[in-house]
Amino acid sequence: MNKNLLLLGFLSCALTMPAVAEEVEDASKAKAPVTENGESVKKNAPSRFTIGGYGEAVMSRNFYSQHFNRYRDPDTYKNDPSHGRFDLPHVTLNLGYDFGHGWTMGMEIEFEHGGTESAVEIDADESGEYEAETERGGEVALEQFWINKAFAGGKFNIKAGEIIIPVGEINAYHMPNNFFSVYRSEGEAKMLPNTWHQVGLSLWGRVSDWRYEAIFTSGLDAERFGHNCYVHYGATSPYEYKLANVYAGAARIDNYSIPGVRLSLSGYYGYTFKNTERKASASYDKVHGALAIGSFGLELNRWNWIVRGNATYSHLSDAAKMTTFMNAFPKHTQQDGSPSKHSPIASNAYAVGLEAGYNIFSQVNCLRDKQKLYLFGRYDDYNTYAAGNQKAAYKYDHVKRMAVGVNYSPVKQVIIKGEYGKRFLSHGYNDEPSVSLGITYYGWFLR
Fold first, then answer.
1. DSSP assignment of 220-261, as one string?
2. Which pTM was predicted?
3. CB of 427 within 8 A of CB of 418?
């Protein structure tokens, strides 16, 4: 049989299967029993290999202008026609293996927007100019790859590799069954890296009703910050490696003491300014760009209701001085093509969100145990430029968004989503309504 056909068949099965949750290592979620020495034992399992993933296919119609100058000159583009988009926001393939004696491995390959990733390098033969090639949009990336050692039946674990930084609700719970909206909730996803993953070392575990995690990793890259994205792109690297000139720490605690309720606190602190290939002059020696993030989250899943909320606030020191440095090199110099956004950076940003949905099929006897239909509403208030030297020029970075919609699950692992949403911008800018439809899957294929 043709080898290409075999490969195509394997990929087709892998990408349409119910998928693996991102925390394969979490003994509280994986239902396999664990021995006293940390070795997991799967009853009636043919192997220690697990495979799965999750995916989203989306269609949207946006009833506002898509012109790049729509915020600089809103009156000119106020009556522009609507535009539509098809998208594959995230499709992942997750693989895991239990080596025994408490040692496990997990990895996640993500296809973002159905495309491939491009790289940037400094070309010595072109006077130090940045060189980049892109064949199509989107990314293909290894989002997770870690080795985990469990102790005391999973109460204490050491994990190393490319891991999720679980700061904020949307990073810790980013699979499509963890939010009602067709796309991931905008606030945290706009201001924080998402899904935030970096190479690091993690100490984590679950004791009684508490889950804890502490992480050591590299700092973010301040050259990737911007007024309309805050630190969202700071965890990415245009090079074939991630810079680690400075370091950072993150931590998270989740509590499950109340039945059907999860309460969470997470935080991050690290320097960002010197995590770049470009060297600053002596006048910037005392500039560190210390980034502090604090976040609170909650989820109630009880009485046929699901209610989720988040509140995230961040402060970035030396934002004004870093803005000056990022814009120090004019266009049409040897620095043209730099991955730096050359954009003002805010000293503060925040995101607040709340969503609630009720399963109306819970009131229908013949459907309550087989299918689910949630009617939901969501509200977000976020600002990626909450404090900065040119705050008045970027009032459109403050967004309030409301959405209503439905989530229909014909089977547990599949969700069909429909949503009407509208962004309400500051006075003088045009609001942005949209309609979106999506179908998602998640879960385990082989376990």
1. P-GGG-BTTTBTTTTT--SSSS---SSEEEEEEEEE--STTE
2. 0.82
3. no
